Fold these 4 entries.
Entry 1:
Amino acid sequence: MPTEPYLVAGVVLAALVILILLFKAVWRVAEPNEALIISGLGARGRTELTDSLGFKIITGKGTSVLPGFQTARRLRLDSRAANLQVSCVTQQGIPVVVRGVVIYKVGDDLHSIANAARRFLDQQDSMNGAIHELFTGHLRSIIGNLTVEDLILNRERLTGETRASAADEMIKLGLIVDSLQIQEIDDETGYITNLGKPHAARIAASARIAEAQRDQEATEAEQVAAANKAAAWRDAQIKQAAYQAEIDEAQARSRQAGPLSEASARQEVVVQETRAAELEAALAEQRLQAQVRKPADARAYETVTLSQAERDARIAQAEAEARETELRAVAQASQVKQAAAAEAESVRLRGLAAAEATKATGLGEAEAAKARGLAAAEAAKAQGLAEAEAARAKGLAEADAIRARSEALAENQEAVIAQQLAENWPRIVEAGARAFGNVDHMVVLNGAQGIEEMLAKALTLGGTGLGLARSLLNGAAPASGGGPEANGKAVDPAP
Amino acid sequence: MVGKQGRVTGRIGPGLVGEVMVEVRGGVEAFYAHSTIPDEVISTGSIVVVVEYFPPRTVYVARALV
């Protein structure tokens, strides 16, 4: 059994293992996120780095490192984060406490790696402390150039300020800043809170306004709905009441239908009875008209007619009596007058017979003529007086028959007086003629008319005396014996 | 580096340190950028061309004639 091949194989394997171990000990590979910094024998950089400090930078590949002659160190190119907390003031002088984070890494180019390697190769874990210190100062100056509003809102301004402030120093350190983030701003004065307050108040106000408006609209809608409900309820109640009233009315009407028809029937009966009574009353009236009124009218007409006839008869009788009295007075007057004339003529004739013959004859004729004239005048006067009295008596008789009769009787007295006067006429004429007796020659220019005028004047004077005498006679009416005295007195003033 | 195009991610202007993103080494890296023309302002989003490169992280750029 040959053991050679196994030995050879074992030796080869051991040699291979040794070789691999040796290779592993010599060969180093740089990961994508790291750089190998090789320094030592033969460690030369690239041509452009001939003036370098004498180390080689390997990224992304492997290389051999001679143990004992060379040393390889790894520089991590990962992103690192450093938390920052800075108390500072803004551009407006407002004190704030800013907490942020800066994300940085070692630059990927060889220059940056070289710079970083020279600074941080043994202090990679303390890199954060240095960056923290660095960025604290930078952040303070950055925030000092910004306002709170920019800090919150203007991100480009923040990054720009960060670049402008830290670019050179980061280049020196071989680092690049990927991002600077402000995480939190503590504002002791309440500036940020107040910054939002107007907007918050405006939003709150608009919210309250909207709420109030919606509430108002809702309330209005509710009230309108309630009002409509009430109106609908009212309408329904009104309609129900109206229908109920109609129902009640119909029921009442149906209940009253029986009595009503009875009453209407009775009413018609009463109407008919009333009409019958009216007809009876009309019949009775007609009967009364025929039996009572017509005869009464006839009787009344008869009475009136009889009364009128009686009255007319009485008037006619009174008129006749007045006429009779008047005529009687006229007759008496003419009788007295004739007697007086006769007496006067006889007296004168006796006087003339006793007077001288010649003169007496002429005078007697004259006086006879005068006496005739006078007699005629007196007769006419007496007739006129009698007519007047008769007319008066007639008027009185028309007014009242009885009074007319008494008046007529009074006029009779007048007539008596007149008669007495007539009886005294001769003496009156004598007295009147006495005036002419003293006249020797009387020339009468107008003839018989002139004599009449003269006599009329003389008798007019006597007439006044006659009126006076009548008034005296009236004063002593029943004393008929006083008549001559009055006549005598009446005559006296005549001349 | 020189001649590569990049995109402005931070405003470039006088008194400011701008930022451009440039494709390099198989990735995209951010570089501090300044304008080659003094007082020129290049706003964010513009395309620029790297005119000068100052290691490790500074470039001078000009507007690209797109």
Entry 2:
Amino acid sequence: MSRKVASLSETNQDVIKALHSAPKSLFKKLIIGSIILAMLIWSASAISFQGINSRGLDIVINILKFFVWPDSNPLKPTLSTYLFTFAKSGVLYLMYETIMIAFIGTLLGAVISIPFAFLSSRNITGKVGSFIGSMIITLIRTVPIFVWGIIFIRVQGGAFAGVLAIAVSSVGMISKLFIEAIEDIDKGILEALDSTGATTLQKIRFGVIPQLTATFLSTTIYRFEINVKNATILGMVGAGGIGFTLIDALGSFNFGIVAVCLWVIIPVVFVIEYFSTKIRTKLTTGE
Amino acid sequence: MKKFWTKVKSFLKETFSPSPLVLSDGSISVPPKPIMPYVLIGLVVVLYFAAQVTNFSLWVLITRFFNFQYGPISYIKRFFPVDWSYMPRVIDPILETIQMSFLGSFLGAAMALPAAFLASNNLTKNKFVLTSTRAVLSIFRSLPILIYAVFFKLIFGLGALPGTIAIAVFTFGIVAKMLFEKIETIDLGAYQAIQSTGASKVRSFITAIIPEILPSYYSMSLYAFEINIRYAAILGYVGAGGIGFDLDNAMKTINNNDRIIVIVLFIFITVVLIENLSRFLRRRLG
């Protein structure tokens, strides 16, 4: 092989030279690889595999069977009682409720985030304000959404608690992204407005708001997309939406209902994700 | 009164279809039809229905929130005094949470690489393979991680295993998506050149594409690990391992309410440490 290469033209010689002079990173790779391997072994020690549940395979087959056709059990007519109905126990109504919880929760979260984000931006309140703000944001993002749900059930159970839980848990991410947008504001535009003699209000109207709207809108839409997914599980703690029906049906082996829920959730989430991506691309790249 | 109405009328007309402007040089500029007013009206209508469905009312919120006897504050009051003696018993579940999300992220990210290859439209020309891989990926992403955890718990029984698999499935979905979007933006010159020497598609993928996407792949995997820590913290609610089980217990049992702060504090510290570590590593990669 090497003899063959040597007989080739000089350009190839240069290529070979460049290849051999590539930085030797074998040692570094070995260290990183062994750290990852050690972490993997340590992590694997947490898992005890007791073998598949005796009914495990049965459950998988059943779920797949019902997912393809939820009415597989003639004794439990699932489609007519859960899917083709707008009753309050029907899956369609529950999904509608879920989306509405996410909608109003996201809007509320975004409204709370605006003043919060301004108060914790480095270019407005300085280092101290931004540090306190970032700690609060991390705290909000850390507290699992169920905890918010359980706390707000004290206000009113059901969908209302879901709205509040979604709102508060959204404040973390939304204001984090809002802050980034605020810290990125181009000061030149404000100076230019100053030079034309604009008042403070005019400076906000024509200098600040136009710079922030696109990011604010796309952040809020993106969070809405996440919140629809979050709202589908809030029902577990009694905070409204489709979650209670879904998790309850899974736990009690009512796979027909599970399948109907999935039939509704998956396309809805998919459609929302599709339109959200479309709108956000339009917002960031301009019309 | 009449004057007021004409003002309102002209305001509405200007908002929905602004009249053309005559510029100083005599040319006429027609402003684009605004969509914002329509969007706002739509939002208000949806908001009305949303408030109706969810029984949302600011009045109830304000009055009940400040109801110190039964409201949320009365619940939060029960978190105090904090039971610090519970601290040593949090460490094991926290470590389990980290282990679950590390292993889950690793497995998911490892599976994501071949899936991303099949799902990127510049490498896979077979329409059927492309669409079906993408469909599977979007199904994996569209369900919350908790539902997978319940599902795998039914199969494998209680413990960290179902949680780990649920995290792996979710990570697989998001990392594969980010990765195929990345692959679709890269220059295929090297890939085609290697293929033209007679190398197989997989071989040229490994030689030409992987080195190019590797830094972003590592960074995506780290990002997934970072967010999975927070997801792993709730999987215990359905018995799929981790700190969530203890948190659920502390929230549901009145006598254990004083443990909540300890648990949340530990999750907080873990999340902050891992986020900062991951961000440091990702900056080095970028």
Entry 3:
Amino acid sequence: MERVWQELIDAGTGGDRRALGRLITRVENREPGWREAMKALYPRSGRARVVGITGAPGAGKSSLASRIAAILLGQGRRVGIVAVDPTSPFSGGALLGDRLRMFDVATAPGIFIRSMATRGTLGGLCQGARDVARILDAAGFDLVLIETVGAGQDEIEVVKAADLVLVVCVPGQGDAVQTLKAGIMEIADLFVVNKADREGADELVADIHSMLALRGERSREAPPVLRTCALSGEGVDLLVAALLERADRARSSGERAGARIREEILTLIEGELARAVRRRFAGGSRLEEAVKSIRDGESDPYSAAQAILETLEPER
Amino acid sequence: MSETENDLERIAEAEEQWRREVLEPRVKRFGIGKSPTRFYTPTATRGFDFLTKVGFPGQYPFTAGNNPFDFWRAHAEAGAKLGIRPDAPGGGAGAGRYSGYGTPEDYRDYQLRMQSLGSRGGPNVAFDLVTQCGYDSDSPFALGEVGRVGVALDSLRDFQVIYEAFTGERDIDKVASNFTINAPAAVIIAMYAALAEKRGIPLEKLRGTPQNDILKEFIARGTYIYPPRPSMRLFRDTLVFCRKHLPKLNVTSIGGYHIREAGATRIQDLAFSFAIGCAYLQAGVDAGLEIDDFAPMVTFNAFGGSMELYHEVAFQRAARRMWARLVKERFGAKNPRGMMIRQPIAAHIGCTSTTLQRPLNNLARAMVGGIAGGMCGALPAVYPPFDEPLGLGHSLEAIQLQVDATRILIYEARIADVNDPWAGSYFMESLTDETEAAAQAELEKIDGMGGAVAAIESGYMQRAIARSAYERQRRIESQGEFVVGVNCFSGEKELEVSVNRAVEQLYDPAQMATAEERQCAKLAELRRERDGKAVSRALQALEATARDEARNVMPDLIECVKSEATLQEICDVLRGVFGEAEPVKL
Amino acid sequence: MSGDRKIRVLIAKPGLDGHDRGARVVAYGLRDAGFEVIYTGLRQSPEQIATAAVQEDVDVIGLSILSGAHLALTRKVLDRLQAQGAGDIPVLVGGLIPEGDKPPLREMGVAEVFTGGTPISSIASFIQSRIASP
């Protein structure tokens, strides 16, 4: 591994925040040497609990993450927060605005907040978040919160990086349970009804319970439904206790751990293959010939893709 | 306007023919897609009912104006002969020019200088950001900000120093005071009351306007402290207290102005301002006040502005009619005075319409605002002074040009000789209707969300305004909208007309530079000299009252300021009870 | 440099100034120019800005100040950046900055001052060329 990476890793995991920030950037950008760096970091990780927080926009996830972090800090723990926002499919840019909701813990020495954009690559978000969580883990953070908006497939993806998933709902959002993306109900380990002082909180709790009952539980027990009020802090203590306990249980579950590792390997492979395909063919003559031939009415995208894939076979 | 259906049919047919024979050939001849101009006929105002839609100036629904003529118009000729500025409010006994900087001592001396130059009114006070956000001058948040955008104020002592310039024939029972203060407005009102008490002046004589419009702070101006709901509780307390004890004080100045400056569209401005107005009126009603008693004390802060002359005139007409209808129908008011939009100026272009490039052009721009104002029954205020965007304050030349421009509109163009000159215009009446309808639809949408407070808590208003601001920027950058000298006609061949500004040293920059230091020294002295126990007692009492939603904090606030608790000490107690407002995600 | 690289910008309003129209418009505009914009909003202390810049490892910092306190606040922000080892991150200042204050800001170490009417595309190009050749 190159010296510059080694230095970054040593400094970053040794308390140098600037180095830590830079390390994360270089890995996120897949700069040459990133894989070696992650291999070196992997053995140093595995201690931190990784908790995913997702839910509809306006549910107060960032505030909640902030309150959870504050309590953990008070317990002498060090907390990393990865806040994820969507990349614009049109411009490739992103507006990362979760950090501003976490103003009360933003400068605490035991905290590290990193904003990430989904960046739209296949499995990219999930792996990206995993990488950042792992780096923070290796740097000695006890818990990493990954916060995303539960409004898309990406967000359901990201929870594959977490030991435990919190789904946050809020009363007064119309049919709150129905509006939750299908799939989120399945992944939740814990439901949180935030802004529980608002009207409709009881109904929402009841709705969630009945939705869970309707689905009919599989082997695992039904996830608990907790109430919090992030603004006042009410209920957050209990939430923190519950999530610490459950995160530990999840991590020690062999089946779950195996599934996660399996997922990660496949994601890494898929990610690299996708990148390789783009690098190899985008802007290349073979692709342009195919495009021309389709436009001339001599072929179709399916045949073109198949032809190109077949040329890959001997190389696999 | 009283065309029959038959007439309208014939006109419609004639219009169709005109289109075919005159308009379309012309469009074709010039090779453009469609006509760049529009023409309006009686068909645009089918079914128009003059009495319901317009009526008369000074009568419901006030479309044509709050009254047939204002004070300044009544005495315009006399005023011209005496050299009195037409925009001296209330004949000069109102609050004067918006001002404030440095320490209270600096500001007091400034006021004394202005008085020696002929100013007769009370203070129209701008406070620094530290004060507006409920901090003291020695707070870490105060870095660089003390005495900058306004005067620094940390205690009742400071307040008294400012008012050393207002005694005798300018005492507070004779002149009005304006305070541009929102989140800690209750504390400033308490200081005003405490000052009157010290001077032996009955509270009923106090006049003026605290801005006291906290809801717009969350969406447009940013000097909030507490979250929206506790802020509304404080508003209620000021409202109830003022109605009872300071009946001549206006209770709020609702800032459509700021909402537009923050980037809202005209329609959003109108709808959001009225949603906020309704929230305030409802607060009064919920507190058991009579609408007819307190609605007249609800004022507005200069709705406006953009460069689009016709639209701004229509906006004012629509706003007046819409507010009158809301107050009457939604709140059952009977007192017409509560149905009027009372504002210091009406249509104007807005500071964000001025440009840094070729600043003298801003005078031409401000003139358009003055014309719009004059044409909708208000002072033809040519505002702001051309050097507004330079960030150096307004020079004497710029102020003089501005004031003369207003005079030229009144005396030479005679723009204020006719009430609502556009009344009955096919174009203006249909534009007014459209504006009102669009604003009404948006207002109903906010009603559906639960009202202004809910729309603010959810971030709806903030996001809508941010989007509008961005859309406008994109239009300008893509030349979808033109700003002369900025995105067009700005090439090398264009002349840079140089700006001559006598450096206006009304604000002494040397004083501003040392304001922080001097205020901190005074704070240290204050803390040494005052009775610490009395302060603690007063603050504790305040806390207990604040925790009880049903009680009114104003009496305790008055005790606190009298005990010489500082502004931040008081605001911190309330922070402990109410919490602080959290930023909304974009 | 890998094709995944995105330019990361921090947009902050130091001090108590609450007029955030300009900051928001620039944030949206830079997002639409393909940047990742970390928008921290109002009332940022110099410490918060420096901490955010370090944790987010941004390529450039944009400060928006309309209260007239730009000299004192910028100096403090640059100070804190230096203290956290991030003195190399270019700082841009925008808002209500009189012509006469631009030289002192540059002398302090500000990379550029962008005042009213500047198209966002100019800001984006400036950042891009600055990153390409620091």
Entry 4:
Amino acid sequence: MAEARRMKGFYLGLAAVAVIGVAAILWARSNAAGGVEEIGPIPVSTEAFPGYSMGSDSAPVQIIEYGDFQCPACGQFAVLTGPDVKRRLVETGQVRWTFRDFPLGIHPNALVAHLAAACADEQGQFWNMHDQLYFRLGEWAPERRPARMFRDYARVIGLDVKQFEDCVDSRRYLGRIEATRRTGETVGVSSTPTFIIGNLRVSGSLSFDSIQVLVNRVAGANR
Amino acid sequence: MAGAMLALIGFFLSLYLWLWKTGVLGTLACGSGSCDFVQLSEYGELFGQPVALYGVIGYLGLFATGLWGLQGRWVARREPTVVLAVLSGLGVAFTAYLTYLEAAVLHAWCRWCLISAAIIVAIFASAVAGLWSTRTVSPPAGSR
């Protein structure tokens, strides 16, 4: 009798774990799918750095990505989805894409990576450095001194390496990077990547299809 | 009992990591840890499949073994506990290797992986304790 009661309690316990487990996963799933939030007009100071942009000024939809170069989810997005977005949305004139710095404190090499990207931008090569940093994230992220690797990336994309190194060493873009990060916080960015698509804010490494749906939604609302 | 319960918890944990890796879930809840870094590293896959998938299969196997040992005539027998100890022992060895990679190669910690490590060690410990206790108990008459 006592044994039967014990077994009954055990199976009830298993059922409880199963229910909690399924509910937790469904909750995580619904957060992933329904993480789009409507936000008000974005306060952009004219003095603030607008970010690194590609695509037509007259594109009907602007997407702002707040990214961290050492964030694996951002890397995943840049590698898996970025090329499609560029080819099918940016180059076709549907979207103007802007990348803004949002280095997270938990990533020890992020700040110097953002400095490297800013210094590559001085020589007109931000997007090439952006691709180097994300495609080779696994290579430099665990390094104690990633700047050595960034110098190699600078050479690969044809930068004047001396000028690049002087720029990184001077840390002259540190203030701008921090200001951009704070601008992100004012529009509710707390994780990376976070995308501002028109008046929508959505976090996480989105698929191309998700972005296309949101772009269509914003473009439809703008018409 | 403890083995089956822990295996079910481990199953859901691995399922969560696997679904994230396959893109079903958006972001990975990890606090200030480096779960995504660990999961997306070259060690996040084995033979072309996410490591978390091996966790899903392994925990499912442990769960089934745990339930098997609670069924009717198997309750008093050692075989299910032996299988549980062997399977969880393999799991502990694999987990030790993954934990070494986090500590010595990636220099990053995935909290979910550490929780899974604690679960597999607990399952192994409970199986060994079960074997130890049945070693000293004589089998009931007529059970041979």
